[in-house]
Amino acid sequence: MADVQMLALAPPQPAPTAQRLGKLSAYFGTPGNTIISVASIAIILFVIKLAFGWLVVDAVFSGNGETCKVSGGACWPFVAQKLRYMLFGFYPYEEQWRPLTALLLLFGACGVSMVPRFWSRALLVAWIVVILPVLYILMAGGLFGLTPVPTTSWGGLPLSFLLSFIGLTLAMPLGIVLALARASNLPAIRVLAVGFIEIVRGVPLISILFMATVMLPLFMPDGVTIDKLVRAQVAIILFASAYIAEIVRGGLQDVPVGQFEAGKSLGLHYWQVMRKIVLPQALKKVIPPMVGLFIGFFQDTTLVTIVGLVDFLDTVRSAIRDPEWQGIAVLEGYLVAAAVYFTFSALMGAYSRFLEQHFRTTHA
Amino acid sequence: MAFLHDMRFRAYFYQVVAIGFVVLAGWTMFSTASDNLAKQNIATGFDFLTRPAGFVITEAAIAFEATDTVGRAILVGIANTVKVSLLAAIFGTLLGLGVGIARMSHNPLLARLALTYVELLRNVPLLLYLFLWYSLIILVLPPVKQALNLLPGVYLSNSGLVVPAALLQSGGLALLACLVGGAAAAFFIRTVATRRRIATGQPNQGGLLAIAALLAPVFLLWLAGGFSVDWDFPTAGKFRLTAGLHVRPEFVALLFGLALSASANVAEIVRAGIQAVGKGQWEASAALGLSRGKTMRLVVLPQALRIIIPPLTNTYLTVFKNSSLAIAIGYPDLVMVSNTVMNQTGQAIETIAIFMGVYLALSITISLIMNWYNAHVALKER
Questions:
Q1: Cα torsion for B351, B353, B356, B357, to the nearest 10°?
Q2: B103-150: per-residue pLDDT in tens?
Q3: Which is nearest to A35 in space by CA: B295, B282, B105?
Q4: What's the pLDDT score for residue B239?
Q5: Long-range contact set of residues B330-333: C-beta below 8 Å, sequence gap at least 24
Q6: 3-state DSSP call for residue A308?
Q7: In B, which residues are within 8 Å of A8 by CB distance?
Q8: Which of A182, A224, B173, B207 could form a disulfide bond with A193, CB atoms 3.0-4.6 angstroms apart?
Q9: Does residue A14 sit within a domain?
Q10: According to its record, how does it sit in the membrane (chain B) (predicted)?
Q11: Stretch (H or E) spanning B270
């Protein structure tokens, strides 16, 4: 990235006295550049003025739907009144500390897990044995005197995070197995893996969600019903695993064949070679694109609202359609949702760039 | 028991187990499904495709009536999907190319603006944007009764944009012949002009001549009165506008959302591709006296294209698959029509199989076309 920009930003040998001028010439060097700068400044000022006017000057800070209706600005009372519903949906009101705790626990655990120094087998075990069960018990209840809450009442931000994070965590091992199967030298295994991966990648997520919600019940014997949330979750896991498999395949191809052969010549079994030699190298290489995939899937879980699950986008939409606020706070609602999605996606993006940097400096 | 340790035996054993498992799972699902369907009195098979649909489709790329068959309804869905994805891919590419180049501008302000644009689009779900654009169209524009009359015959309201429709009365064949002939002539002139430019080193007016050759036959035909067009003007009724060409808000919101999200991806791909071209190429062009614009157009972009095409293929496939979000805002694409068919006929398995098959087939087609193009521009080792 630096190459092209350096070439143009810095003229060959800038004289020391011309350096301050050189800084300004990046903005006003030539007539064309000046026009671009002025136009850019005009756009930025216009957006700031528009946003400030809408968010602060013309905004309504207290009142109800009626006061908002007459004003042209943002309707903050709507956000204040509806925030709790947007975050937690129809989860029983008195019990909403539980999803909140679960969310905070998830954030904390993710925050710790994001530090490469803490990556270890113990952390993985902690996730499986402690964190995931605690999250589930907090949400579902039924143990330790917590009132049971059926999954049909789950909603809002916890549901979005559950679907995307848990889905991707569980899709990971499946994706790795698929990638290995695709690279296998057993033709039948390879064909099955290629078939699954290419079919899943060739159709939109919504069609897999439709299969899980509309078609799957037809494939179940009488009397057997699977929770709708679980079905959507399984659909997301299957969908994600195909994409993970393709990323892992790229990593596998980057590991020289010599590594595999060396392992074999030491007398290790296929799985031992994979687990101890090839996969550690391959997975390390694919961490940055994997985080990129996570960002995409975090956003794609919004599609479950189409098959009738109450995720964060869905609670925001029902808040907007509330009769008291109908047609008044549309922009407010979507902006709150956009801000939440933007924050988490941008954080993950920054993390991905950090990882890229981290691996470049330590393993180049 | 020595054969248990034989590698060849093990290889066969694993494969047989894997295939056996898949076949068994498939057979179990198939038999339970047929049992369930028999109990619910749903006939299996694709007979329902020939039955009358009995529902209307608000926007059809090919003509459709409620009395047409279910099969034709699904065809309309496919046509609508292709229409919106194709337009979104074209607009997204053009916009993305601009933003990608702006992203590398030496003007920090413009570069930052482009970066903000890309980040805003990439970090917020497409579905949210679709809902947002759709609601904004509905909220900001007036209801159809007070439709804005922008130009004579052009009405803008929250039920869409209505413009006069051009109906070709006669001479369609002649028009088509002129278009094809013009295109062929333009292509020929351009090829010859390029060859001569390379041979002589002198610039020529091949581009202008080609454009003239493209337009001249149609213009002459129009002068000669070879074809006639009927303009169908919309009329403002009490509740709705009738006649004319109707661009619906669902279509606009979907096209807008898809094109914007594609443009953000294209911008990043273009930027990465251009930056992957070595610095020496810029320096060599500068040494030859080429301007920055010419360097970009004649030296860097052709090389960047090779790096750009594979990820660009993925972006187009994503646009195509994302067009299925149409169902969320009510644009009758393949998924939405299929959903209606499912609700009306109860043939869930067949319908889902059809639309997944169509998506697969079209995805593969797009991949093939792009692979062919990739091979076409790839570095030719001589």
A1: -120
A2: 888 788 888 889 999 999 989 999 999 999 998 888 878 777 777 777
A3: B105
A4: 55
A5: B330/B58, B330/B250, B331/B59, B331/B80, B331/B84, B331/B248, B331/B250, B331/B251, B331/B253, B331/B254, B332/B57, B332/B58, B332/B59, B332/B60, B332/B76, B332/B77, B332/B80, B333/B77, B333/B80, B333/B81, B333/B84
A6: coil
A7: 106, 292
A8: A182
A9: no
A10: Multi-pass membrane protein
A11: helix B249-276
A73 neighbors A53 (Cβ within 8 angstroms): yes
Contact A339, A274 (CB under 8 A): no
Q: Tens digits of per-residue pLDDT, A177-214?
A: 998 888 888 888 888 888 888 888 888 988 888 888 87
Reported residue count of chain A is: 364
Gap between the Cα atoms of B340 and A269, Å rounded: 53
Radius of gyration of chain A (CA): 26
Single-letter amino acid, residue B153: G
Give the relative orientation of helices A330-363 and A312-321 as an angle to the nearest 10 degrees.
Answer: 160
Sheet with B160-163, edge to edge strand ranges: B148-151, B154-157, B160-163, B245-247
Interchain contact, B128 vs A334, CB within 8 Å: yes
Query: How far apart, in Å, are the Cα atoms of B269 and each of A313, A349, B320, B365, B373?
Result: 29, 16, 18, 22, 17
Question: Is B125 in contact with A300 (Cβ distance < 8 A)?
Answer: yes
Instruction: With respect to residue A294, please indicate whether it lies within any of the assigned structural domains.
Output: yes
The full set of domains in chain B, from first to last, is 70-147+247-377 (1.10.3720.10)
Distances (CA, A) of A39 to A102, A182, B112, B113: 47, 52, 13, 11
Of B36, B119, B139, the CB nearest to A330: B139
Q: Do A8 and B106 touch (CB under 8 A)?
A: yes
* φ, ψ at A66 (rounded to 5°): -65, -45
Give the CATH number of the domain where residue A275 resides. 1.10.3720.10
Amino acid at site B66: A
The b/e string for A219-232 (b: 16+ C-beta within 10 A; e otherwise) is beeeeeeeebbebb
**A344 within domain boundaries:** no
Nearest to B122 by CA among B251, B275, B271: B271
Quick check: B42 and B346 in contact, CB under 8 A? Answer: yes
Q: Which two tokens stand for residue A347?
A: 């954080």
Structural tokens at position A61: 């800070």
Cβ neighbours, 10 Å, residue A193: 23
A26, A187, A215: residue with CB nearest B106: A26
Q: Is A25 on the interface with B (CB under 8 A)?
A: no
ipTM (interface predicted TM):
0.83
**SS3 breakdown of chain A: % helix, strand, coil, rounded to 5?**
80, 0, 20
Instruction: Measure the CA–CA gap between A206 and A300, rounded to whole angstroms.
Output: 10
Query: Per residue in A93-106, is it b (16+ CB within 10 Å) or e — as a string?
Result: eebbebbbebbeeb
pLDDT tens sequence across B312-357? 888 888 899 899 998 888 888 888 888 888 888 877 788 888 888 9
- Pick from B14, B109, B136: CB nearest A37: B109
Number of domain units in chain A: 1
Answer yes or no: do A192 and B19 touch at CB < 8 A: yes
Whole-model pTM? 0.82
pLDDT per residue as tens digits for the range A218-264 = 777 766 777 788 888 889 999 999 999 988 888 888 888 888 888 88
Closest Cα to residue B313, out of B253, B355, B340, B273? B273
The strand ranges marked E within B128-227 are 148-151, 154-157, 160-163, 165-170
Range A329-341 burial, b when 16+ CB lie within 10 A, else e: bbbbbbbbbbebb
- Examine residue A248 and state whether it is found in any structural domain, yes or no: yes
- Whole-angstrom Cα distance, residue B61 to residue B84? 10
